[in-house]
Design brief:
5-stranded antiparallel β-sheet, 4-stranded mixed β-sheet, 25 helices, 11 strands, globular
């Protein structure tokens, strides 16, 4: 495979890093060679059915091999697996399902190295920075680990708390990240030259999206800023809390936060023992999630159960999250977090390394998407996907419109309860057919949109664990109504722009009609007909058979002549001639 221009080579690093780089690149070579043989070469010589026969098993085996590689190397490779497991837009389910269980849990770093890293980052002895620092981590991931600690008395008195969580990056992680990104960028450059991949996805762009997210995740000052922005967005909401950043003990690679550990949000039994209704928690979680997405435009993109606590507060206790008076948060009331048993509680979010942001173009695209879905307008819905940057320029939108129309016609008017009465086999068959249509289209979800889908998916799973009867659509309804109610005002605001667009279209109409007539006269008008397509496929098969015959003859004759001077190479060529011969025999039998 040629190296893409501008694609970086392995950085000048240690021997271990170069070995790591070669492992990643070697795995990619094996994948590309396998894909070329089964997806390009064999179909080209007429063995498409043979190549497709074991595709599922091959993809599963490949995903399993990658899991082993990721666990072995750690670093960004586990993050790559988790990133790919969410790319349902470009990868088949055989791959994403296999990668979903990849956990970012690795062996802890020796405490001596952690101590050294912490001292170097904070610029003071560990005993001066903290009154206590637990050498046993509470969590260890591929990029860093977390320890419990207590602040020094003077600093604790100033801040009003002493128990903290300290996140420390693994020593040398910067070099590992640089090596991994260099390898991924080279692989992305290769893939951009493979038409089988480039028609379906922009591989270099995917790598850069992943690189941006990864570099932000190892910048703890960025995470600290995210935590404070999130806290400010919900300053007037009595339900939502987040840890306080201890800036005096934080740096690029070390982050100290107030310890807010409490009841894990999916621990239903613990919630009930604390007098908290799990259904009420589900309601609030959904409200807060959509508040982040539709109102704040800045949302926690990794809301798995380990990152959300439910914190009980005894009656009469002060609420740190409600110190700010005059909340303008939609639908937020103190009574929401009252269980009726003299106990209040908060939803406490942690880990702000992965956040999503709703830009103005994305907000407008989402609005149009919701309007099209509500109106069951397949053409408008496909157009909104284009606005969102979901469809690549090579997408067959006509086929997608037909698929969306079929979806709306069959299931568009049904509620959740009605869907449950449909024969599961019908749902499965329709889902399989619709999924195949979607999968062959060149979809590529932007990072922000992908994070949005991931967030709603995770929250949906948590709310279902809290309340099996919970309906996410009921929770999003107030926010959807707000979007719909503002649509009229937006339409009036955009009226001059739309009028100009319509006027321009009308002005161009005579010229376009003249161009259309000219193309018809010249015979340049393309019309799709099934019969023409069938005849073209027949001609293509004939050409393939002719090509197989020529390749067979060339390999056989070349092998015979070469055997006199190079017996090994001649024998290999003669044996290889069996492949086009097999294709020729099979295709002739089909006639």
């Amino acid at each position: 495979m040629p190296q893409a221009s501008g694609t970086p080579a392995a950085p000048q690093t240690s021997r271990a890093s170069r070995k790591r780089y070669r492992k990643i690149v070697r795995f990619a070579w094996i994948f590309l060679a396998q894909a070329w043989w089964y997806e390009l070469f064999l179909p080209r010589i007429g063995l498409r059915r043979f190549a497709a026969r074991g595709r599922t098993a091959r993809l599963q085996f490949l995903a399993q091999r990658f899991r082993v590689l990721a666990v072995d190397l750690g670093g960004l490779m586990i993050k790559v697996g988790q990133f790919l497991s969410a790319r349902l837009d470009i990868l088949p389910p055989e791959v994403t399902n296999e990668l979903q269980g990849l956990q970012d849990e690795v062996a802890a770093e020796p405490f001596d190295k952690i101590r050294e890293q912490t001292v170097a980052e904070l610029g003071m002895p560990l005993e001066s920075a903290y009154a206590f620092f637990d050498p046993t981590p509470i969590a260890a991931a591929s990029l860093g680990q977390a320890h419990r600690a207590r602040l020094s008395p003077a600093l604790a008195a100033d801040l009003g708390f002493e128990d903290v969580i300290v996140k420390i990056q693994r020593p040398g992680i910067d070099e590992i990240v640089a090596v991994d990104l260099a390898a991924l960028r080279r692989i992305g450059g290769w893939l951009s030259h493979v038409s089988l991949v480039s028609k379906r996805a922009d591989a270099p762009a995917l790598v850069e999206e992943f690189a941006v997210t990864s570099l932000e995740e190892i910048n703890y000052l960025h995470e600290a800023a995210n935590a404070e922005r999130f806290t400010a967005d919900f300053a007037g909401d009595p339900v939502v809390e987040a840890p306080v950043v201890v800036w005096e003990r934080s740096s690029l690679r070390a982050l100290t936060l107030s310890d807010v550990s409490a009841i894990k949000i999916t621990d239903v039994e613990a919630l009930k023992r604390a007098g908290i209704d799990p259904s009420a928690v589900a309601d609030e979680l959904a409200r807060v999630t959509f508040q982040q997405i539709f109102v704040a435009g800045f949302f926690h993109a990794d809301p798995h159960p380990g990152n959300i606590f439910v914190t009980p507060v005894a009656a009469g206790s002060s609420n740190a999250g409600s110190d700010t008076a005059g909340s303008d948060t939609a639908g937020s009331e103190t009574a929401r977090s009252d269980t009726g048993a003299g106990v209040k509680w908060h939803l406490t979010y942690v880990d702000f390394g992965m956040m999503g942001e709703i830009s103005d173009p994305l907000r407008a695209g989402l609005r149009n998407f919701i309007l099209a879905a509500v109106g069951r307008d397949s053409r408008a819905l496909v157009a909104s996907l284009g606005e969102l940057g979901v469809l690549l320029s090579t997408a067959d939108t006509d086929e997608l419109e037909r698929a969306m129309s079929a979806l709306f016609d069959r299931f568009g008017g049904l509620g959740i309860a009605e869907l449950q009465t449909i024969d599961p086999r019908e749902l499965e068959a329709f889902g399989r057919q619709f999924g195949e249509t979607i999968r062959v289209l060149p979809f590529q979800l932007p990072e922000s949109f992908l994070l949005l889908i991931r967030t709603i998916s995770l929250v949906s799973g948590v709310t279902s664990a809290l309340d099996r009867d919970f309906n996410m659509w009921d929770a999003v309804d107030p926010f959807a109504r707000t979007i719909l109610s503002t649509n009229g005002r937006d339409a009036l605001r955009d009226l001059p722009q739309q009028a100009l667009a319509y006027g321009t279209t009308l002005a161009r109409l005579p010229r376009r009609m003249d161009e259309l007539a000219t193309r018809i006269e010249r015979g340049q008008l393309a019309v799709r007909t099934p019969e023409v397509d069938r005849r073209l496929r027949s001609v293509e098969r004939s050409v393939n058979r002719l090509g197989s015959a020529i390749v067979f003859a060339a390999l056989l004759v070349g092998g015979v002549f070469l055997r006199s001077t190079d017996e090994v190479l001649g024998t290999v060529l003669m044996a290889t001639a069996a492949v086009p011969l097999l294709h020729l025999v099979v295709t002739l039998r089909r006639r």
